[in-house]
Request: fold
Amino acid sequence: MLQLRDRNIAEKLLEKIKKANLKLKIMHVCGTHQDTIVKYGLDNLLRKIGIELIQGPGCPVCVTTSEEISKAILLAEKGKTIATFGDMIKVPAGKKSLEKVRADGADVKIVYSIDDAIKMAKEKEIIFLGVGFETTAPSTAVSLLKEPKNFSVLSFHRYIPPALDALLGMGEVKIDGIICPGHVSTIIGMMPYEPIAKKYKIPHVIAGFEPLDVLMAVYMIVKQIEEGRYEVENEYIRCVKKEGNLKAKEVLKEVFEPADAKWRGFPVIKQSKMKIKDKFEDFDADKIYEDLIEDMEVPPEPKGCRCGEVLRGLICPQDCPLFGRICNPSNPVGPCMVSAEGACNIEYRYKND
Reply:
């Protein structure tokens, strides 16, 4: 529940947004933003005054492809030890998941940080699943700079700005404004969004994660549209600097290089994957175990699952025929129902009590 002072501010912001009398579709690309939006009913409040908020590809677990997950499953089945964060083990790839092969005897470890995985590597060979955007990738980069023994990474890390560019370029859905992810922006800053805002003439606002942060970001987008501007503005000034975190960006650049990659629900997005550089190939599981995964079969996407369309902002979770029926957090068919940052999981948790 919002405190009285915050409620008063929220009401004033909502009144100003309503007064603008605009019909807008605003996309954000952050699971934490979605959690705030649904938990506090901001989606319903804003919809009543003409603003539709939709979640784009802001869940790193959700955009990881079946091919990538299948690599991890295959290596686990071949006797390798996989270390991963908890959300990843339930993501299905065909009829399998890391959780299912673990139940069959594969060695799959759940860790809370990459440091936990490196500690395990003192006892045995560990393959760590590097999942996440610019927020989590620096910890992977720093770890590889230390050259840990018996340790390698399957890099599923991705860059957010190329995905935004690709999504807007596809033109499948008219988007009037972008709420940029707060966590990612603490690392990359404001400047990577500027060419995108200029190219598509769409306002971008970096926002924090409190309800008032989201409402203020919406209001800032409304103001830009009223004034005919399409700039990158920073609502999250308490944490995000224009230049971002220079040290974190430096270690990312030292360890990773951009490469073309598929995202779930998308065609290949150019320069969107963080590929481990050749000088760190001794820690690149894709290269180390190339012979084990070269003939891997990629399973088809689950029949009826529409996670790809949810990730592109084309449909709401409830539009998927599997939502809340066959697919739920206890029995997820697609990754958007698995991850705590997935739109389907969030929608189910708060609206299906």
Q: What stands out?
A: The radius of gyration is 20 Å.
